[in-house]
Structure formats: C-alpha cells, structure tokens
Protein 1
Amino acid sequence: MKPGNQSTVTKFILLGLTSDPGLQVLLFLLFLAVYVFTLVGNSLIPVIVWGSPHLHTPMYFFITQLSFLDLAFSTSISPKMLVDLLTEKKTISFYGCITQIYFFSACASTEFFLLAVMAFDRYVAICNPLLYTLTMNKCLCVRLVIGSFISGFLHSLIHATLFYRLYFCGPDIINHFVCDIPVLLKLSCTDISINDLVRFVCSAIVVATSLVVIFVSYFYIVATILRIGRAGRRRAASTCISHFTCTFLFYGSGFLMEMRPHSSSSEEQNKFIAVIPSLVVPALNPLIYSLRNNEVKKALKKLLYQPFYF
C-alpha cells in the first residue's frame, strides 16, 4: 500500500539544523554528548531504584517509568539526527517518517499522562499520608502506568493513521531535523483540514486532562503544606520540587513549541527551539531527580561502592 494510496513521494529529504559542515561536526559532538548523558542518566535511575529495596515505593516506580519514556523519546529522534549531521544524503522514507512521528508523539503523549499520575501520587502522599500505602497500592500503580501508556500510544496512533489518507506529490524537502507533524502536513497535496481538526481536538484533550489533574493536585498540596509546621512543610515541599521542575520543563518547552511563529522566515529559529523538548529535557530529568533527592544520591553511592560478588 502506497502512502495516500497514490502518493508519488515515497521519501523525504531532511535539511537538518544547518548546512555548514563545520557547524555540523560541532553540533554532532554536542548532541552526541547530550544523547550519551540521556542514555546513561535514564538507564541509571531504574538500576538505582531496582537495586535499593528502600526505594521500592510508588513515587520511585513512577520515576523509573518517566526515565524509560525519556529514553525512548530521545532515541526516537537522536540517532537519525546524529547520522544526518555526518552524512550528505539526509533522506527518510515515508514509512520511516510516520514511524518516527508515531513513537516520539506516543512518548510525549504518555509523559503528559504520567506526570499527571505522579502529581496525584504526591497529592495522596501529602494530603492523605495515613492512607497512602493503602491507596497507592501496587495494583493501582501498575494500572495507572498501563493506562498512561495505552492512552498515549492510542493518541499517537490516531495521528499516524490519518497520514495515510494524504497524497504527497512534491515537494519532498522537510526543513527540519525530524519529521515534525505541522511541517509534514504542509507538504501534502490533499486537504489537511481533517488532520488539523483531529490533531487540535485530541491534543487539547490530552493536555487539558493532564493539566486539570496536576493543577487540582497541587492546589490541595499547597493548601495542606500551608497548614502544617515549618519542618513538615519543608519535608513535604522537597518531595514535590523535583516533579514540579520536570513538569514545568516539559509543559514549558511544549508550549514554547506550539506558540512559536510558523512563518517561513522563522523556520531556522523553530528548528533550534525544537531541540529543547526533543533532546535537552530528557537529559535534564534524571539530573533533577538525582541532585534534588538525597535518597537517590545515597543509593547511588552505595551502589557504586558496594563490593561485587560473583
């Protein structure tokens, strides 16, 4: 089955971030370092949690899922971008483009839901501490994570499937380093009003649903923190600061992407803005949780310095 049943374009040319050979090498080294840091950081957190029995709690269970998502999100973009920075022929097939769109959109959508779940977890821990263990039991935690993944991947599947109704007759040049949905839609020779409408409605539902849960959870969290003593207030706030920081970075970079101008004169600037949610945020999340969390730092030191027995 050909794209759109009759598309003449079966592959696209990605222009990448820059055409300057010297700058391409510099960006390759920079983004390679960022990607390696993302791989190591997001792989290390699950190892630390799984190797430390005292970290086997709902909060750290959700953190390991966030690390997995950041790892998958970055991997759906970084390898192809790194290869393109060192090669002259930067092409991607139609099906490769749709696959890339599907996976990075699925990971991003799932992260919206997962951050909402993590906010709910903090709400229960701070507002109902006596019922925390009973409420956030293992079964509920697993169901919340599975529900987040199913919702995120179904949301992405809708967008990816709708591309097959489009006809691409040329041009075949994507002025980006990734198959971005808005950029790809502009290349279609078919009416994209249905795609735009579905994209707007579905994305609005995902963002609105997760934001409502986060705002309501933090409203009650703040109200509870203000009623307790200074020492308890500090401990309660410290358990939320890492999640709040990650949420702010994720939503902030996402809104920055959506609010950026889409004129042809700003395309070069937009590509570099897209680097923030695609590469920078996944690398920062494990750093935030490790530096802001004494339990994680202690578990890491214990893991690094304990003797190995074979």
Protein 2
Amino acid sequence: MPLKYTPRPTILPAVDFDASADATALRAAMKGFGTDEQTIISILCARSNSQRQTIATKFNEELGRDLLNDLKSELSGNLGNLIRGLMLPPMNYLCDQLFKAMDGFGTNECTLIEILCSQESQQLQLIAKLYEEMFNRPLVEHVCSETSGDFRRLLTLLLTTTRDPPRSVDRHLVEQQAKLLYEAGEGKWGTEESTFSKILTKSGFEHLELLFEEYKKLTDRAIEQALKAELSGKYYEALSAIVEYVRSPARFFARRLYEAMRGLGTDDAALIRIIVSRAEIDLENIKEEFERMYGKTLANAVKSETSGDYERTLCELIEKKNNLKSILSK
C-alpha cells in the first residue's frame, strides 16, 4: 500500500464476542417457516471476518449444520450474494470473484483489473495459490486463456513478478526509470509497451509514487497524460489502474463505486465486491473520498440505487465502525 496512506476500516472486531450465542441466534433466525433477515444482518455486519469464521465453526460443531449452506438456502438475489461474500475468507472471496469474471461465455476484464492491479505481490501470490486450490486450475493460465496482447502480458507479469520490497528510495534509479518511460512513450515514434509493463509491475508502490513525481518534473506532464496519449484499450485501463491505486487507493475504489451506480442499472456485483472486500481495510477512507469527489455520501448514493434488506446490509457495512468507542476506551 502507498507509503503515506493510513487505511481506516468501518468494520472492527466485536468486543464482547460470543460465537456460540451468535451461532444459536443465527440458527433461530433461519429455523422453521420464514427467515429473520434483520437478525442475520445485525450479527454478521457487526463481526469481523475472522469472527464470522469462528461462528461458522461453532455452528457446525454445536448444531451439526453448515452455516454457509443454510444462509444460501434462506437468502437469494443480491442479498444472498452479499451475505455469501461476508462469509468467505477475504482472499477466497477475491478468488471467487476472479473465477466468476472468467467463467463461461465472455470475460469481465474490469473485475480482473480492479482486483489484480490493486494488490501487493504477497497478496497476489496468496490469491494465485488459493485459486489453484479452489478451482484446480492455475490462475495465470486461466487469465492467459481469457485475455490477449499487451493486456495479457501485463496481467501475467503482475502474477509472476515480485515487486521490489519497501526500502530507501534509490533516487538515481527513479531518475533513470522516468527517462526510460519517456523514451518508451512520448519521446519516440510509437510506444514500447514492454517498458511500461516491466517498470509498473516490478517497482514497489512507494517507489512508483516518487517515479510519477519525477516523470512530471522531467516532462512537465503527468504520467496519466502520457498513458492516455500513448496507449489504448484494456492495457491502458490496467496501467492507469495501477497508477491511480498508487496515487490514492481511496480514490481508486471511490471512482469504481461511482461507476457501479451511475447511469441506467447498477453493477451490483462490483458494488458488493468493493464494499465487502474493503470494509475491514479502508472503507472509511473511501467514504470520505467519495463524498469529496461526488458531493454526496456513499450511503446516500447506495440508498438511491438499492432497496430492502440488500440496502440495509450495504449501509450497515458502510456506516458501522462497530464498537470503536469501546475499543478506544479499553
């Protein structure tokens, strides 16, 4: 994550956590005729993911049932997808989303870009390992089969290259790479895409922050302007995503949330994925950036595009900050 970024979650671990009591309450909410959705929402949105995993274990040990399967049978549609996302371990959930983006006819390249371009090397390595365990297929092989050209080569590099670790910045290297990027793009006829790919997938995020500043000093143009002038298609979108994430993770996800809700229809899959996956990382930062960029709160934007228990669950995750006062007072 960029050096100056301090991530702030909205979902924190519950203080007086009783997994057995939660398991019993969830079973009661789903037993018999009808489902008490509000109890399910209230419990699961007020627990961290690791606490939800403990609840699932207790549910199986003490009640002899599979919590995820019970939830699937009781909840459907967007609410069901949202609750399922909350119940999967975070990296498993991202693997699940990557698989859905590539499974069947067509490929959702935007999902691939969103997930793969916003991860550190260690996270990508874990995702690749889990993906093969979950779907019996190497992630890099699946990605290669669903993409092409420079876009495919870039994603392959992201999955197979280890970024340089955080360290004291080598100013000479920063200056050298800024010149290389200029000479590979704006400084020549045609574009040498491989140079952009190698530098933006190999360098650590902290290094890239300084590289982008150096590029501006050298050329008097932002790196974003250079990419837009020299590149196109999904390859351009992926490199731009890396730059945007390095500049500001909060802005990166705020813009994607806005795009998911603008125009006719809502991209519920993207809306769910971002809110679920960032709630325990930096959703508080994303909320602030969303309001700064678009002049309305994220919660109000969500309320205007969703309804019912689905809306309530999303807003619980957005607004929660559960037990913050209790934690700070201890």
Protein 3
Amino acid sequence: MSDNNEALLVERKGHVETWTINLPEIRNPISAPEVVEAIVENVDRVNLDHDVRAVVLTGAGSAFSAGGNVKDMVDRAGMFGGSPYELRDGYRNGIQRIPLALYHCQVPVIAAVNGPAVGAGCDLTMMCDMRIASTRAWFAESFVNLGIIPGDGGAWLLTKTIGPARAAEMALTGDRVDAATALDWGMVNSVVEPDALLDAAHALAERVAKNPPHSVRMAKKLLRESQHQSLSSLLELSAAMQALAHHTEDHREALAAFNEKRPGEYTGK
C-alpha cells in the first residue's frame, strides 16, 4: 500500500504501516490543519482495519518534527491568530486532536525519531507507545523558551513517561535532551545509528505484528486504562477482555502453534 499526500506519506508492507510527516522544508510542524487531519483520519482508518497491526511514525528530512510553526506564531496566523477565545478553539479543534487520536489508536505506534523532536514534536513522540531514536535525535520541551506552555498535553505526556521531576526539568528549562540521555531517562526504548533507524523500528513493529492482533489491541487498551483506573476496575476490564480473547480463532491457533513448536498464522478472527 502507498498513499502519498502532501502532509503525510503512508506506506504499508505486510501488516506494518509507515507514516512519514512530509513537510521537511519547514521541519515537519504538526500544527498545520492538513497534518492534524491526516493523522486523525489515518488513526480512524487503522482502528477499523485489523490487517494493520503496527505503525511506525517518522519525519521526512533531517528533523522528526519542529512542533508548531514558529513563523505562523510570529505572524499570528492559522491556529495562532485571533482573540484568546479563538486561540483556545484553535488548539482544541486543531493540534489537540492529535493526542486524543493517538491515545485512542488501537494499533501500537512506534516513533522512529530521526532528528530533533522539539516542542509539540517532542510531545508527539510521547504520544506513541514506543520510541526508537537515532543518535542524531534530540528532544526539547521548549515551549517556555517561546513564552508559551505545552498546549498539546505535554505536561501530562512527559510526566507519564519520565516522571514528574524530569518532566519538570524539561518543561521549566526548555533544555535539549540528547538521545543517550533520553535512553537513560526511559524516554526511548533504544538508540541506533541513523542508517539503522527505520530497520530497527520496523523490526520492533514486526515483533508486535507477529502476534494475534485482537490480543495486541486489547493489551494496548489495558495499558492505556492502567494509567487512570484503579486495580479493581482494571481487573474487571481484564476479565471481560480475557473472556473475549479465549473465544477467538487466533487463540486456538496460538495454542496449536505452541504445541507444534511452529510460528502461528493469525487472521484477526
């Protein structure tokens, strides 16, 4: 599969899709309406397509994403223009749709961070389930340096990922965090050389995609719910999902494959 539009390139190989933010000349900002629409529409699509089992998200060119378009901020254009009330609605009806969409994406999303991930670009990596960084990557929660705050959920996302103390350090200083430090802090799963980045991200995606897709989607849902539910509530949800899992054809195939010491062949049924 290959669906190439101006904002987001979508390619499918087997059960894995690669989404590439495709605005390299302006370092892949995600504040533009076309980027928001492309990400939201593709999340909605893969949620309904059980043949898609993992997604790799990356950026074209040298940057992963510069976050918001600073030129538009200077010009007070697009989502950065208008009265305070219009600005609020611009965020709510614009860039804030991305964290909500990715949070509810049923398919695991792996960020392949090829270069700088700045501001909302840093937060975009935190919206993904797993992250692999190039040695050229760096991360900055740099909103404070521009006299603004994380308007896309960064305070929540960073705290959930690296804890309150390190999230505070990033958000209140705006300082850069290099790939090695990001690995040490648990921001990323691994760091690889630039030429190996996409191969490493796809290898991780394939490790996910080889499993029964219903089980993967339900496990991801439980991981999301665990962030705000009590243990007793999560156990109730787990029991209900487990009952569904036990009645899938893929569960029976997984048991047969285990007993016969062979890879499973799963259909999503």
